[in-house]
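Teaching note: in complex prediction, the entire set of molecules is handled at once rather than each chain in isolation. The prompt given to students was simply: 'Predict the structure of this complex.' The entities are:
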Amino acid sequence: MTTFNPNDIPSRFDFAEAQNRIFQMWESGGYFEGDPESKKPPYTVVIPPPNVTGALHLGHALNNTLQDTLIRMKRMQGFNALWMPGTDHAGIATQAVVERRLKEDEGKTRHDLGREALVERIWKWKEQYETRILGQLKQIGSSCDWKRTRFTLDDVCARAVRHTFFDLFQKSLIYRGKRLVNWDTYLQTTVSDDEVFSQTVKGQFWHFKYPVIDPKPGEPDCVIVATTRPETMLGDTAVAVHPEPDKALDRVASELREKLKKSSDAEKASVEAQLDALAARRELMLPKLEQLRDMASDGRKLLLPLMDREIPLVCDVWAKPELGAGCVKITPAHDPNDYEVAKRCDLPMINIMNRDGTLNVETGVYSGLTMKQARKKVVEDLDAIQLLETVEDREIELPQSDRSKTPIEPYLADQWFVAMGELSQSAIDAVVDGEVSITPKRYERGYLDWLGEKRDWPVSRQLWWGHQIPVWTKACGSEGEVQPLIDAIHALPGFDGTVAAVQLEPCEETDSKKRANLELPFASVHVCVQSGCEDFEKALEELGLTREEDVLDTWFSSALWPHSTLGWPEQTPELACFYPTSTLITSRDIISLWVARMVLMGLNNCGEVPFEKVYIHPKIQDGFGETMSKSKGNGIDPLDVIAKFGADALRFGMAHLCTETQDVRLPVQFECPHCQHSFDQTKKNRILPKVACPSCKKEFSTQWAESEEDKSLEKGAVTSERFETARNFVNKLWNASRFAMLNLEGYEASPISEADLTVEDRWMLSRLTTVSGNVTAYLEDFKYADATRELYEFAWHQFCSFYVEMLKDRFADESKRPHAQRILAYSLDCLLRLLHPVMPFITEEIWQNLANLCPQRGWGEVETVNRCIIDAAWPELDPAWRDEAIENQFALYQAALSDLREIRNSQNIGNKKKVKFSIKCTADIGDLLRPLGVYFSRMANAELIELGPSAEAPETSATRTTAEMEIYVDLDGLIDIEAEVKRLEKEKANLEKSISSKQRQLSNEKFVAAKPDLADEIRTSLLQAESQLSTIAESLQKMIAKL
RNA sequence: GGGCGUUUAGCUCAGUUGGCUAGAGCAUCUCGUUUACACCGAGAGGGUCGGGGGUUCGAGUCCCUCAACGCCCA
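The expected output is the structure of the full assembly:
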């Protein structure tokens, strides 16, 4: 082993070299590992598992920095800390990326490949990206227990998923039902809401007449409905009218009047015209609308043309009296709004579409036509029987599939649901009762509102990548088939309630003729099978049952994450020790999708909430206030930031911007790879494949580079200069430590008696006590920005700028040196510990270097320090060391010093020129300042000549005042009178402003009566200000005389 | 449409229960290489706290209202 020589320490921290080395040391040393057998109290955090779709972005960097900071502090505080890592299979997102790749690279669809081969491909993709993601997390410094890394689709998680599904199925909390989905008729699959985009196209609005059956005298013989999709009329099951047309019209009118008040002159005419039209319409239509409403209440029926089906006239608020004829046709199986109406009014839902988008047998003669063909024919046929009223041109919103670019059809499909009633309530109670707390508290509301709706959770997804639903189904054509089948299942070898559960789903269509027509079964028998019963599954298949093809919503497995990762349903030591976990740190967009579901699943499966605290951190936007994303080109790769600034700077920067607001802005820059010049990203240049550097004019490529030519250019990094502050801070800490180590030669550990502590030592101890207390409290409360601000201010402007500077004089004095060394080592040690959770790498590096010189530290008691800072004890200083009197004493010194420096600057006196000065103050204050007087020389190259009540201003001097002191700098032969006059005048003006404001307050009788203590304080400070003013006025007069 | 949030210096943000001349970092300007650090040191300039109204002795802070921007849910 080579001997450590502080002189070899470079003046910059080589983070690139150190990070990997240090991380490996931690990992191989087992420092990240949680021990289920430990006697220490547990502290657990589960990572929000990143999706395996791609690389991590800055939001992940923020999220994981915050978790790591917390877990590192807890580890140092003596907890048995476990940070559980892993990744999410992210069903739709991942399958979509792989499918897109397949299409682009090989021109194939998933159907060309088949289920097994596609899933295999996705696994390969997952392996590749998971490695990359975990690598990124490690680069950030994440101290996860990596040996425990889980994946939401691995065997352990799969068992938990299956167990949960089985449990819910058995409790009848899982059931199969119908739901409208977005159907892509080209790909023959459902697509999620966020994969649907709307396009405005030119279309027509057709008005049809539906005859009324047996109208009473005075009633119309038909009603008029309008639609943009005539062919859907084949599936109509009702026509709706508004239950309170007058009130509805009133509301529309009052909304228009409100709008009129607010609208500009230009808009007024149009709004007024609308109001007039509405009034006219009311006059003309209201009686008719009310009549229709009465007819509906009276149970009048209509005859659906072409289909000759009787359909009811119903009352529902979905009908808009202000539009068209005021009636709306209801097609429950093919329109989301109509679907809601059907549920409210208990209407039948008729599916008229085959999976390929053609019309099914329900539509009779139209069966087999495409939607487009059917539209033409329906319109022609209605026209032929004089039921087509009018046609108008109109722009319509057409939903399209983002994947196939073909129109989306709303389609009623079989879906599995989780019944949310009881489950939601348990999760509501957990937060209301305070078992789970959400910080910031404002996010509770969204959580509670969402759960309060208690909408059943549709969990099936028509995908191949995910947990396949463990249900085997057989459709029974007749009633007679059902019981024998159930009996046969019960008679299967190994059947009992722990292995399989049976549910019977009767067909919604009760008319046996229609069922036969539509090839619908009488009922479906569903069997849910536990994991590990492959023989039983086979037996079911032999009975003719087939396995459900759909997979589960990816959030189903995510909801189990806090306990599935710990081995549930096995009662593992890990589960016993680390569940419930302590804190969850995540971002607000998945509070309902993920957080709420974890709470209810945790309660259902384990009987305990999954975590005590939830912290919701801000979201990062770019300089334009837009969300960062790869598709916009404004996304920052954390690795680019780490490469340029180092992981510690990334982390410090992240924590530093983590305030209580919900968004933070981070302006984004390109960095030229040729000359390292940084310049702002704009909305224009961020989408270019190559960009020219404005400084060196050379071009570099971006993430958009596709052509060979562009790709051959060097790639420019995308970062943010907002990390510079943090990088500079890292450098400052490095060099302060370097200075310390350069001065620790001959260090010997031994206790210092309290009496030997100097004023500045006491000050440093007091500050350390305050700062460590504050930082601890801030981090416990998730106030990361406050914690880092406090550390930054303390380390830079107190520790470095004052304490270390003062120690320089003491190092120069052999007799004071050993004492100074011990106290410096001690305070640096303490500072490093406080910074470690946020800046783990540099603090570890300095810690180990420092250990070479002073392995034993402490000023009162001496102890040998741990080998690594990662498991060193968190500073807990005796609050008795907090000394306000000493801090005030120091403040006096700092005030005098800054006046001296200001005089030097305003008088333009070079640093090398020594000045002499005096301070006039009370004897008490003089006594306080005296011990620090010697440091004016080092800090301002100024010699204190006189201190106390008898100090006088020299003939030619600059004067400054503070509340407690008057400071005179002897400027014989140096003075710039004009500058001094200017400065004094300004000072005078400031004081006058301050005095008059104080006088105003004191002359306010109500104020003095209400706040006597505060008034006293102001009175005192007024006296001081007046005295300052007279001193300044006097000096000013003297100066003016010299002009 | 409903909910949440933001608006303070050129930029990014602090500002606790209302109280003395509203703070920081970056940027700008001036001066400076002094036994760690130019990724440094010292100092300066820069704000009618989004607009309007109210409560109060007193409002960046509390209430109402308007506006702009952002996010989530429908």
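Point out the following to students. Residues 232 and 881 of chain A are 80 Å apart (CA to CA). The first strand of chain A starts at residue 42 and ends at 46.
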